[in-house]
Amino acid sequence: MKKISYISAVLLVLSMVFSFNPTLASAKVEGPSLNPNKILNVAHRGASGHAPEHTVPAYELGEAMKGDYIEIDLQMTKDGVLIAMHDEKVDRTTDGTGFVKDMTLAEIKQLDAGTWFNEAYPDRAKAEYAGLTVPTLEEVFEEFGRGARYYIETKAPNVYPGMEEELVRVLEKYKMTGPNAPSSKVLIQSFSPDSLLKMHALDPRIPLVQLISYSSPAVITDAEVEAIKEYAIGIGASYTRIDQAYVEKVRGHGLLMHPYTVNNREDMERLLDWGVTGMFTNFPDILNDVMKNR
Ligand code: G3P
Ligand code: CA
Question: Which active-site residues does the annotation give?
Answer without folding.
Answer: 44, 86
